[in-house]
Every structure is written in C-alpha cells, then in structure tokens.
C-alpha cells in the first residue's frame, strides 16, 4: 500500500494473489486494524472517465491462476482510517476467501506517490484450501 496523505480517510492496498489449487476461489473481503472497514474495488473506464467501485460478489481467483491487485485496477480499499500507516511500516491485512478462509499477510507501506507498491506482500502470497 502507499502511505496515505495526512488526514486521508481512505487508502488502497495492492498484492499479487496466486491460487495454486485446482479449484477457483473468490476474494470476498478483507480487514485491517488501521481501517474501520474495507472493500474489494476495481477501477475501470466508463464514458472516458476513470471510475472506482466495489466488486460485486467478490473477485475470482482462477484455479492455477494469478490476479494482480494494482494501482488503476483491482485493489483493497481501506475505508475510515483509524491510523495513518507510514512509509517503511509493515501492516497486517487479513484477506477473506470464499473457500480458503482467512489469510493474514504482511503489507509494506510505500511512500506517498510511489509509482509501484513495495513487493513484500505480492510476490510471495499463495492461497490454498485449509490455510
């Protein structure tokens, strides 16, 4: 995730999620101690304007596939921030999957305006049934 600007009430989280199983799963939610609530969002172009909206029904992670949560696309939206994570921090984020259940992962906090999020969480996160 990127460090939110001072006074911000929202922030975005990014990761690469790999499903090594032979069955599709869905990312249906998330939680973090620094946010009152979270939503899984997607950015898309509608009538020439970039729009952000919650993903209805969760985000499918295909069997044997990978889905990237990245700026300008799918992401975890942290709402009503209770704390302001700072660049260099690592925060725990719990991802909730339809079949794999809850998986808590560390998420690095990049500086405000970073072009790419830190890679701690993304590259190594694999989900699986029973984890």
Features:
LpqE-like, 0% helix, Immunoglobulin-like, four-stranded antiparallel sheet, disordered C terminus, 10 strands, globular
How would you characterize this protein structure?
It comes from Acuticoccus mangrovi. InterPro entries: LpqE-like, Lxx211020-like, PCuAC_sf. This is Copper chaperone PCu(A)C. Pfam families: PCuAC. The protein has 131 residues and is an all-beta fold. It has one domain: Immunoglobulin-like (Sandwich), CATH 2.60.40.1890. 0% of the residues lie in helices and 48% in strands. The strands form three sheets. The protein has a four-stranded antiparallel β-sheet with strand order 1-8-4-5, with no helix packed on it. Strand 4 (35-46) and strand 5 (49-54) form a beta hairpin. The radius of gyration is 14 Å and the shape is globular. The two termini are 23 Å apart. Residues 117-131 have low confidence and may be disordered.
Brief overview:
This protein is mainly β and 131 residues long.
Per-chain topology:
Blueprint: E1 10-13, E2 15-18, E3 25-31, E4 35-46, E5 49-54, E6 59-61, E7 66-69, E8 75-81, E9 90-97, E10 101-108
Antiparallel strand pairs: 1-8, 2-7, 3-6, 3-9, 4-5, 4-8, 9-10
InterPro entries: LpqE-like, Lxx211020-like, PCuAC_sf
Protein name: Copper chaperone PCu(A)C
Organism: Acuticoccus mangrovi
